[in-house]
Structures are given as structure tokens and as C-alpha cells.
Design a protein that fits this description.
Two copies of one chain form a homodimer.
Chain A lengths: L2 H12 L1 H13 L8 H13 L3 E5 L3 H4 L17 E6 L8 E6 L20 E2 L2 E3 L3 H20 L8 E6 L7 H8 L7 E3 L7 E5 L1 E10 L3 E2 L9 H21 L15 E8 L5 E2 L2 E10 L5 H17 L2 H5 L3 E9 L2 E2 L5 H14 L5 E4 L5 H8 L3 E3 L14 E3 H19 L4
Parallel strand pairs in A: 3-6, 3-7, 7-17, 8-16
Antiparallel strand pairs in A: 1-2, 2-6, 4-5, 5-18, 8-15, 9-13, 9-14, 10-12, 11-13
Chain lengths: ~425, ~425
């Protein structure tokens, strides 16, 4: 352990309570879509305290609408800003973006939680709460890394651009807005919950909605109608087959440990208004995974083709075509070489802190990394302290030790990548 | 055609426009559950005009709660009364209940309607609108029959008890309340939409709700969760098999023309809150048909047994039992002999008016008839002018000629059953 690393390590140990307090405050502000403002206020306060140059703005749809990656059904951003905080380098070094999203998914069925999803309860070294793992824990690692370096008076040559964005869970309009605003860098780290693994490749994904028509009738003469739920089940079974076919094609060894590299998730179904009526419409909503080496458009076409085949095999659907829409969330896949310099830098820092080499895998989910890499040409590594399996789940939690380990790794990465001003 | 029949026939012909106007007004008042008041006001106005003795009351749950047939999840009846109108006989005759429900099911997807569901549009001799067939058309037949007899100064020996009840579509609390209030008779006619057939037997039915648990996860790692929608599909497939087994047992020739005598209708499904999360709970609601010769309790037990078997064959469900609830709607099956005197009376009246014998079938759906017969010992014939296939459907309509034919048949039935005071 060299001298600087030791100082950072000690600083993090001494400020453990402060870091936990910050994370708890962030979790206690429910920042589901449309409610990001209060959690962002905590981020802004912290960045001010760190002496960073702040850029706070509400997304203007008109400024992002023309970008080919734009896909957003939200109209009102008032009171829920994006935040970028710049730590200007002394010059001559490589810059880095540290990107975290502040939005969280809804808490689901509250009865499945052991603790209040927004209570930030701590037990056995774990902090419980919606957003703990995905990804306020990662964001706190970023802020701790910056704070450690700044407090220890370590100066970097390259710029550090910290971004706390909205809308990641709905398709990345926050990060896209930062990109369109001109923020770029020589590399980016996104501390999404990777279980401390490095993800040089990320699955893309898109949300879809399929509206299936039936024919209403009285339940007692249900044979006079066509049950939209039964037709929706037929479509879902077809999508399960499509998922199987698509995943059989994935041969990238980075996906070896992942049961379903590019899942098709059926996330919602809604049909019917009356128990004793045959429902005349069913709406399925879900998420289609997109392989790092395919385009969103290719994946879209494959699903359209699948629906066409399902229609051909069903007399009713053939006459009453299901409607396929791509709405809301839309995450570009991302892809850098395993031996890219930023990968090497993070790997080295990881080994310095943890004493062993990190696992490298392909991410099973999309992140804002695709927007930065495919949209901005910025090489992205996704690496963070949270637990993949707990993201979006009831009883989401994070092991607090990981938050501080990740902070140390990111701090060393910044020094190596941006360069130390001696 | 005897003299009285001719007079009734002519009266109905001369008052065709009045009858249609009354039916249109009733349809124009959307009387879905909780909104029955305005349509009942039209009924009350008409009964006053006819000089009937009115009994108008709001259902008091405390007065019906102890009845073994009681099953109701509605608490507020204010402003939406039950109506009974008595035409007292001169004495010495048999009494008859004429029962129609004023509530209608929701209109469903409005885009599937050619006309405004509450516009009461007339085209090619048909009147379109929610409730036209189920069963405001039938109720108008009853009122026309009474009006014809009263206007023609025909006096009956037995009492005629006209009932316009709420809650039929949700399980019959309106009719149950009238029964508990003491209204009984020697027979009853319910003009539900039978396509002018006579139904001496009626299918019972019950609403059920099955809550299926899953395990939430991020859609990108959906294999870490258990999709409640997939488990719900497994349950639905099991219910489809149960329906098949139950219907194979039905051998009553009255059901010969009916593809599925006692259907299990899946009327609603609701699961998930986020396209890229694995949903952790799915709720299925539906309606189980009950054969005239079985009890509601027997049918309940058979479904419980079916769910138990499905659980045993699925590891997850075995550990996470689906919850089965019987809620809301609950219709007793009904059953009288084909050669019961009231059947003979209606058959004879039918033949007098139509010139041929009516078709006799078993009803594919429950009615309030089960409450009157099993609850009150009142023999019930279900016979009405509406079209079975259009009940609860988009573009529900009724052939106006049938309304007047049914009125004439019911008028003759009343004379024959209650006896003519010469």
C-alpha cells in the first residue's frame, strides 16, 4: 500500500459515519420518477460543501428531442433538476465522468419489505432501502472518493465531472441531456450495482407495450366472446420462445455466468374491468434486453417479426393485430474492449485495494453507459458496490463495507487516470 | 285471439312510441353500480303514474347481513334505492313477482361501440345501449304489461308485485333485501335476456379472486425473481382444465345447445407496476358457473381442491400458496320442474302471442331467480326479450319488437296466473 492509498484508506475509515449519514439521507428521500428534487438537493448541498462548480438545470425536452437516442414520455421536469459538479483539473491530464442516477424504481408491495423502504434501516452491516443498491450507494462512493482526494489536498491534472442524473430508470433522458449540454470526457465510470465486478459490456434494453384485443361478452356465455387475457397468454408464451431463441445465439464468454444474458421481462399485465365479463383488451408491458453487439432497431424488428408469426398461427389475432409500441425506457447497449486503458486502470486500482483481480462480466442490464459510449464516444466502465440481485427488489440493501471499498478504488482510479499534480 | 288479448295487443301497438321513449330514458341514465338512483327515479315516476303502491328504500346492510345468501362488498347505498310497486289484487288469486334489475355493467372499451353506450340510438328496429338487453328492455316489458292491463281496466284477483332492484350484477343484494323485507309470491318472472326462451333452470355463479405471489427482481436479471404473471398463467391454465372437467359432467338435455354450460370466466388480471421489474404479485378475478343441481359450497370446494393440486405440482406455489377469495357477486342456481304450473302458464301465453311453442333451455348465467327460489321458495321462470349474446358486450342492443311481444306474453301470463276479476 503506497503512501497516498494509505492516506485515502484512513480518511475513508475516519469518515465512515459521515458517508453512512449521507447515504441514509439520500435513501430517506423517495426519489421515484417525478420526485427527484429533494434527493438532488442533498447532492447539491454536498457538492457545494466540496467546493465543486455546479451546473443545475431542468431538462428541456426541446434540447434533447432531436437526438436519435431520445425517447421520453415525460413532459414535466420542473423542480427535479439534473446536477453536474465540475472539479477542474490543473491541466494536461485525462478527464473522467463519474455518473450516478438519483431516480429509483417504485417500492412494489410494501408488505414484502422487512423495513420501511425509505427508512434506511441498518442491520448487520447492511443498509436497507429502495435505492440503496441501485444506486445511491454507488453515488455516495463517487462523492466520498472526491471528498477524500480534495480533503487530502490531492490535486489532479484532468477534469473530474460528477453527474447526478434523473430518468435513468426510464431510459436515460437525464444523461442524454448532460451529453447534449456538452459534457464529455476521456472515460466514464458508472457505479451501478455490479457486485464489485467490472462490466465493459452492457446489455441494452427497451420497454415495449403490446395491446391485445378480444371481444367482450357475458361471462356466463363466455364462448360468445374472445378472452383478451387468453390471447395475451398466447403472446407471452411466444415472447418466452423468442427470448429462448435470442439467448441461444449469445456466445460471448463474458456472459458465461449469466443464465439469461438478454432477458425479455414481462413486467405488467392489465386486463378486464368486471369479473363476469369477458375482457376485450389486455395490455402487456415489458422490457426487452439487447445484446452489446446488436442495435436497438435490430431487436425491435425481431420482436415485430415474432408477433407477425404469432398472428399467422391464430385466426383471431390474424384479423385483430396486436399493437406493438416502444415507449418510455430505452437504454443503448455499451461495449468497450476488455483491454481498454480505462479497464486496465480500474483493474489495477481494484487489485491495490482488494488484493485480488476483479471479475469481468457483461452487464445483464442497460445503463446510461450506452448513451455516453454510443452517443458520445466516451469509453465507459460500469463498476459499483451494490448487489445486482437486489436492484428493484423488495428488501433492497447494500453492504456498507462495499461502499467504502468502491470509494477507495474510484479515488485511486481518478489519480491514475487524471494524473497527479505533484 | 280472444277479445282481451286483442285489446292488449292493440293497446301495445298504439303505445309503442311511449314504450320506446321510456326505454330510451332508462338507458340514457347510466346506472352502473353506485349510480342507480337516476334510473330508479324514472321507474318511480312511472309507477306513480300507474297508481301503484310504492315502497322505496335504501338497502340496510344490517338487515340482510345475517341471511346465509348475503355476500356484498358495498357499503354505501345512499341515493340508490330499491323500488317495489304493488298492484293489489281483488283477492282470491295467486300472486306474482315481476322482477327486473336496474343496474348495468360498465360499458368497457368505448371505442368498440358504434354508438354512444348511453345514447339509446335506434337503427333498423334495434335500440343500442348499455342495459338495453340486460335488462332495461325486460323491465319496460313488465311496466308495459301492467300499464296495458290497468289502462284497459282489467282487474286481477292476485297481487302483482313489481320489483326494480339494484345489485343484481354484483350478486343480488337488492333482491335479497326485498325478500328479507317480506316480499313473496306464488311465482315470479324475471325478464332477463333469454332470446324469448324459457329458462326453468338457471346456472348459479360466484366471483372469485386469486392472489398469486411472485418474487420481485430487476428485469435484466429476471432469473433472480419469480414472475407472478407466469405463475398466474399456470393457475389460469389449471382453471381452464377445471372448467373442462366440470362441464363434461353436465348431462341435462336442457343444456344441449350450450357449448359451455357452467363456464369459469377469467374476467380480470392485474400484475406489475414497472416494465423492467419482475412483478411480485398477480391478481386474477373471475366468475365460476355453478350447475343448477350443485350448491355454491360444493363448487367452491372443487376450485379449492384444484388450486391445491396445482400447488403440489409447482415448487414455488407449494411454498407460496395462492390466496383464493370469494367476493362480491354470488348468484344462487335456480331449478323448477319443466312442467310446473307457472311454466305451463307462460308457455300457453307465449303460444297465444307468437303462434308457436317457446324453446325451453337452462340459463347459462345466474340471475336473482336463485335468491327468490332457493331463498324464498318462490318458483321462478326467467323469460325476457333481450339477446343473451349481447349482454355485457359492446354494441349491446335489443330488437324493439321483442319488448312488445314479451309485454303481451307477460300480460296474458298475469291474467291467467293471478285470475281475472270478471
Amino acid at each position: 500500500m503506497n503512501d497516498i492509498q494509505q492516506k485515502i484508506h484512513q480518511w475513508l475509515q475516519h469518515h465512515r459515519d459521515d458517508g453512512i449519514r449521507l447515504l441514509r439521507r439520500l435513501i430517506q428521500e423517495n426519489s421515484t420518477r417525478g420526485n427527484e428534487g429533494k434527493a438532488q438537493a442533498i447532492i447539491i448541498e454536498k457538492c457545494r460543501e466540496l467546493g465543486l462548480s455546479l451546473d443545475i438545470w431542468e431538462v428541456d425536452i426541446n434540447e434533447v428531442r432531436s437526438h436519435s437516442f431520445f425517447r421520453c414520455d415525460r413532459h414535466d421536469f420542473s423542480g427535479n433538476p439534473n446536477v453536474v459538479a465540475l472539479w477542474k483539473g490543473t491541466g494536461g491530464g485525462k478527464s473522467i465522468i463519474l455518473n450516478g442516477h438519483i431516480d429509483v424504481v417504485p417500492e412494489g408491495n410494501e408488505n414484502d419489505w422487512m423495513f420501511d423502504p425509505y427508512g434506511a434501516h441498518i442491520q448487520n452491516g447492511k443498509l436497507f432501502g429502495r435505492g440503496s443498491t441501485d444506486m445511491k450507494g454507488g453515488t455516495v462512493s463517487l462523492l466520498l472518493a472526491i471528498e477524500a482526494l480534495k480533503t487530502l489536498d490531492i490535486r489532479l491534472k484532468g477534469d473530474v465531472i460528477f453527474q447526478s442524473v434523473i430518468e435513468e430508470e426510464s431510459g436515460g433522458t437525464g444523461t442524454l441531456s448532460a451529453l447534449v449540454r456538452g459534457y464529455t470526457a476521456d472515460a466514464a465510470i458508472i457505479p451501478e450495482p455490479t457486485n464489485m465486478k467490472l462490466f465493459p459490456k452492457q446489455q441494452g434494453s427497451m420497454w415495449f407495450r403490446i395491446t391485445v384485443k378480444g371481444k367482450a361478452a357475458h361471462g356466463g356465455t363466455r364462448y360468445e366472446g374472445i378472452n383478451a387475457i387468453e390471447k395475451a397468454m398466447y403472446i407471452i408464451q411466444g415472447l418466452q420462445q423468442l427470448e429462448k431463441r435470442r439467448n441461444e445465439r449469445i456466445t460471448d464468454p463474458l456472459y458465461d455466468g449469466i443464465p439469461i444474458p438478454i432477458p425479455i421481462n414481462i413486467g405488467k399485465i392489465q386486463s378486464g374491468t368486471w369479473p363476469s365479463s369477458v375482457p376485450d383488451v389486455a395490455i402487456i408491458e415489458g422490457r426487452m434486453g439487447v445484446a452489446p453487439n446488436e442495435t436497438l432497431h435490430e431487436a425491435e424488428q425481431e420482436m415485430e417479426q415474432c408477433l407477425k408469426q404469432l398472428m399467422e398461427q391464430d385466426e383471431w389475432l390474424n384479423q385483430h393485430a396486436p399493437k406493438l409500441e416502444w415507449f418510455g425506457g430505452r437504454w443503448q447497449p455499451g461495449d468497450i474492449e476488455i483491454d481498454h486503458p480505462i479497464m486496465k486502470t480500474v483493474e489495477t486500482a481494484f487489485q491495490q485495494v482488494m488484493g485480488y483481480l476483479p471479475m469481468i462480466e457483461a452487464s445483464p442490464w442497460g445503463t446510461d453507459g450506452g448513451i455516453l459510449s454510443k452517443g458520445g464516444g466516451i469509453p465507459v466502465v460500469v463498476f459499483g458496490p451494490g448487489t445486482t440481485e437486489l436492484a428493484h427488489d423488495a428488501n433492497e440493501s447494500i453492504v456498507l463495507d462495499r461502499v467504502f471499498e468502491a470509494a477507495e478504488i474510484i479515488a485511486l482510479t481518478m489519480i491514475d487516470w487524471c494524473g497527479l499534480e505533484e
